[in-house]
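@channel anyone free to eyeball this complex?
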Amino acid sequence: MDKMQDIRRQTLALLVDNEPGVLSQIARLFSRKGYNIEAFAAGPTENPGVTRITIDVLADEPHTELLCNQLRKLYPVHSVKRLNTGNSIYRELMLIKVRADSSERRNDVIQLANIFRAQIIDVSLETLTLGMTGDAEKMDGLENIMNEFEVLEIARTGVVAIERGKATINDKSKESGEFNYGKNVL
Amino acid sequence: MKLTGAEILMECLLEQDTEVIFGYPGGTILNVYDTIVKYRDRIRHYLTAHEQGASHAADGYARSTGKVGVVFSTSGPGATNLTTGVATAYMDSSPVVFISCNVADNLIGKDSFQEVDSTGIMLPITKSNFQVTDVNRLADTVRKAFAIARSGRPGPVFIDILKNVTAETAEYEFIPRKDHKTTGALQTLYERNMADFRIPSIDEEDIDLLVKMIGESKKPMLICGGGVVRGRANEEFDRFANIVDAPTAITVMGGGGIAGRNPHVTGMIGMHGSQASNIACDNCDLLIAVGCRFSDRVALDPESFASQAKIVHIDIDRSEINKNVQTDHHIVGDAKEVLRMLNERLTQQDHTEWKKFVFSHPTETVYEEGGDTLTPKQVCETIARLVPADTIVSTDVGQHQMWAIQHFHFDYPGQLITSGGFGTMGFGLGAAIGAKVGNPDKTVIHIAGDGSFRMNCNELCTEQYYNIPVITFVFDNGTLGMVRQWQNLIYGKNFSETTLDRGPDFVKLAEAYGLHGRRVNNQKDLADAITDALECGEGYVIDCVLDMDEMVRPMVGGGDHITNFMKI
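replying in thread with the prediction:
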């Protein structure tokens, strides 16, 4: 298996125990296997004590599967699911601060922001700060346009994703049963 | 009842039926060592010369007995000295719980004396690891650590306890091991299992499919891996090999997974595999690997490995499936249980023709008989002839390891103790000490090279002090033999930094430690020395002088096709 074949951006969704050290355990697994995390977002879920993590990584199909297998083996990891644009919705939040120190520039920025349905969330006499949610392409689009002005700072959350329809990350499969066999401590 | 953290730790070890601890005290673990004295009648502590020795001893104890080994160490250098032993246990799936104490919570994060982020260091080389910062969580964590170490695919677990936790008190209640699943963290895991997938079982359809594949196969072959040994599935595997009537190769870790003299055994497979094993692997139409992870020393070239065969992988760890070699079918489950189910459903097969082809190739290497000098083969044969049949063999890493595995026949799990995955030189002496502690009625021998032995020979003092009679055979060829072999074959005989033309004199060294030592140059002296060592019942070092240019044969280069034997 050649690592350079068919490399593309892969999105993994994980449910993990909310415990100290779990994040570093997961991050270390990627670096140990030779992968760089492109985006990482973590937050609470409907289940107290369980954190959902969304990770973007550049990898080919077979190696993504191996990464998922290694993740599933960790005790704090409840489930791992690979998501793709065909079956899932992606969202990200971007905050972008641009220089707008004249009324003309302010108007230009506000007009463009409206086209992107970005919101003006902070204003000063020298700057405007926009907030926008959307998928990665939309983020890149706004960023490119705003580069025409002077971008002072950008903060992005990293992408989160969820499957369309009734499918969830908790769905059982033969494979998840096989992983749980190895984790059976009883 | 209210107990200190140190007492709770010891009580928890009693819950786990721990009888033996290998360890080394130090500043942060003093509270625990202060308490050990009260438990002396129930738990024996062995003080080693070095934490690494303790880690290998606990590993050897775990591998030979099937119980969980326990190690104590202090913070900082104590914890880092364990790491080689932890990684060794991790690569070979050996259940050991390593317990280290760290500085107190008021000193954590201040680069205090002997402080190190030990859980961070242990992260990639343990199955799981925990830092205990609250005495009320201590008992629960220890219970969870032991359950994880011994369950599924076993492995090392590391617990880091802050010094203040060992002094603080908490309510402790004895809970028998069978009830652990209904308390604390294990209860959470148990309930999660119950809710998510009930208690997992082996898929019957997978079993039936394999039975069908075996029925259709004309040229089946089996690989006995370390999982058969860890799962203590040797009887089931033996029966399986007989029913399928298939040639069976053994990996380094699989020694003892099938009776060594079962007529189906073709010897080792892979880099130093026998011709019979490697040629069978290249020609079979069905390859069933049990508890083996197709490491680069077995599946040298994963693309061309068993290219004519359907590959079936039986393993307890789902993440091993399709990791190194693409498989056609797999069964996830405990080897003992899977093989029992298969044996029940299979009818006796007959592959006489196929076996005739496979066994027309040598299963053992024919080495030239030495003249006046001793050869590795003679040493192994003389040992095998004189020691009891159930002798436990512990090895270091290198040529002597391969020779020992090629020449000895291992009959039960835990009879061969060797660092297969991590390849840790210096593993053997500590491991032999641990094995002898766990099996006082058996003879334990330690096969070492002069390079490996020099690394951790300090543990001879442990052997002497506690009177743990291990017989060490040093395959003394005055060189790092395996590295020299590669230099000889691949690096144009540029013997860079591998010649060990230096001390110590191993006979004098043994004597300095209060043990017996003897140097032998021929078979008769060797036989005399072995007889003497067996009779005296004390630690013994036999320095076997060998030629430095002896090689391990056959050999296939790393990444090469499995039948592409080098001309040596």
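from a first look: The interface with chain B takes residues 20-21, 24-25, 28, 32, 62, 65-66, 69-70, 72-73, 75, 78, 172, 174-186 of chain A (CB under 8 Å).
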